[in-house]
Amino acid sequence: MQRGRPREFDVASVSEAAGRVFWERGYHSTSLDDLTEATGLLRGSLYGAFGDKRGMLLAALDYYAEGAVARLSERLNSGLPPHEALREALLHHTRVVSALTGIPGCFITNTALEMIPSDPDVTLRIESIMRRISTLLAAAVIRGQAEGVFNPGLNEKAVGDFLLCMTQGLRVLGKVVHEEERLTAAVDVAMRALS
What we know:
The protein is built from nine helices and no strands. Helix 7 crosses helix 8. With 195 residues, it is an all-alpha fold. The chain starts with 10 loop residues before the first helix and ends with a helix.
């Protein structure tokens, strides 16, 4: 017995398209018409796949986070020495914000500022994403400690949170400071703090 027509679209592509709209406009300023235009789907198809506009936001966050976390992991595990790999991962944020003038900040950060604490599901998603990023950054420092390039007395949770703050801060500061050299100088201060 068939249970309706199968989906004729790629959920990941739709999540990506919806995410770009939420990123540019914010959740509350995004209309269903904006989402149907960006995705090329009718409301019924969007509701059928995601439940509602909030479900679309959650799917977009999941899609964005998977890509962001995977790319960070690749940068941190690139085969470079731990100090260089971590510095390059942080510098990535300076390059992104310098190149993306006109893009309104980081999707995860923007969503956190707009939706937390009023939406518990979004709060849980953002906390999970931040925890994953912090864990990857802490693991990079632990590798550097094992090789003698970072201070062995650093607490892994604290250093992961510190570097997470650094990455988020670079995204925010980069919207105001457009000189990559200034952002790079901030990264170098952070790297010295790990020695």
